[in-house]
Amino acid sequence: MRKTKCFENNRSIVDLFNIFEQLMKKEEEVALHCYRTALIAGEISFMLTKNKKFSDKVFMSGLLHDIGKLETPKEILKSTGKLSNSERIQVQKHPVDGALIAQKSGVTDGLILGVIFTHHKRFDMTGYPCDAQPQKLASSIISVCDAFDAMCYSRPYAKPKSVPEAGREISNGSGTQFHPKIAKHFLNFVSSCENDEFQQNFYENYAWERPKVVVLC
Length: 217
Ligand SMILES: [Fe+2]
Ligand SMILES: [Fe+2]
Fold this sequence. Notes:
By secondary structure, the chain is mostly helical. It has a single domain (8-207), classed as Orthogonal Bundle (Hypothetical protein af1432), CATH 1.10.3210. The chain is built from 11 helices and no strands. The protein is globular. The structure holds fe (ii) ion (2 copies). One fe (ii) ion binds next to loops. The site of one fe (ii) ion has 6 residues, from loops.
């Protein structure tokens, strides 16, 4: 089995999937959202950089980006109403909690930990955690894919958007929420979805086959 250097003592990639499995057991909808986000982000990363090692790491960081939601109370994750201030603060802890969970589980890779910690930091430096550094490339990619997936699937507090609607939101957020270069690349990817098998599957998954799962961004 392929080994990665994302862990101390050369532990195998299986350990990373063990962390993801915990999320799958406790918060399946969140885990499925992470998986879809990872799939798109890995693909976008490779198209953008042609770097397999980098895109593999982006994929792995996508799998774990919301791992901190293991610490978020279930009733808050499932809430359909407007969150109170204290509930919102609890939700906004998930990047910090996630980085701690990953570190305790043996993840030492800076790219993966950075994505978990900064995936809600926006391009304009708002977002959270407020003391996080600007996003690096991997985190900028995850941010766009994360938002897109969350918009396209059912959430307790919002109806799913169609692919074109979600694309428009990404476009509107370019330069404020999202890195403009990544947003542009992502939109090019979405608009050329009839060219190859992966993109066809991607488009079909998002446009016409929406599993009735509840997902939180
Ligand atoms: Fe998140
Ligand atoms: Fe997410």
